[in-house]
Amino acid sequence: MASMRFKDFIEHPPMIQFTIEDRGGERQLLEIPEGIGLNLMEVLKASDYNILATCGGMALCATCHVEVLEGGDSLPSVSDAELDILDTLPAATSCSRLACQLRVDEAMEGTTFKIRGEEH
């Protein structure tokens, strides 16, 4: 019986659902397998969103700037390094985050993010 549950887990892994709003206001629900080990920037690029991510996820450029529109209460706190970069953005708000600093995990469930970073 236990192997059946394991098989179900492998074939139907738990999914994390969150919404992305693009620069034009279009929203799309993304479903990402739990435990995928990627950050939000990597998921956005893999999902063909127009996001620069110039520094490759090192929190140096802020081109993966997103804004948390809804939810996000369970997201990890902004680090000092992330805050330093966000402080350089004229359009940053108290809900701004760097997508490269947000690991896709259950804390993201139900959150809505708006893409704010530069286009390429």
Description:
20% of the residues lie in helices and 22% in strands. The protein is of the alpha+beta class. The chain has a single domain, classed as Beta-grasp domain (Ubiquitin-like (UB roll)). It has a 5-stranded mixed β-sheet with strand order 2-1-5-3-4. Strand 1 and strand 2 (27-33) form a beta hairpin. Residues 14-119 form the 2Fe-2S ferredoxin-type domain. Its cofactor is [2Fe-2S] cluster.
Strand content: 15-25%
What's the N-to-C terminus distance?
51 Å
Structure class: alpha+beta
Q: What is the radius of gyration computed over CA atoms, rounded to a whole number of angstroms?
A: 15 Å
Outline, from the CA principal axes? Answer: globular
Total of DSSP H or I helical runs spanning 4+ residues? 3
CATH topology: Ubiquitin-like (UB roll)
CATH architecture: Roll
Q: State the low-pLDDT regions, or none.
A: none
When the domains are counted, the total is 1
CATH domain class name: Alpha Beta
Which homologous superfamily in CATH is the superfamily?
Beta-grasp domain
> How many distinct beta strands?
5
Approximate helicity band: 10-25%
Order of helices and strands: HEEHEHEE
Organism: Runella slithyformis (strain ATCC 29530 / DSM 19594 / LMG 11500 / NCIMB 11436 / LSU 4)
Cofactor: [2Fe-2S] cluster
GO molecular function: 2 iron, 2 sulfur cluster binding; electron transfer activity; metal ion binding
Protein name: Ferredoxin
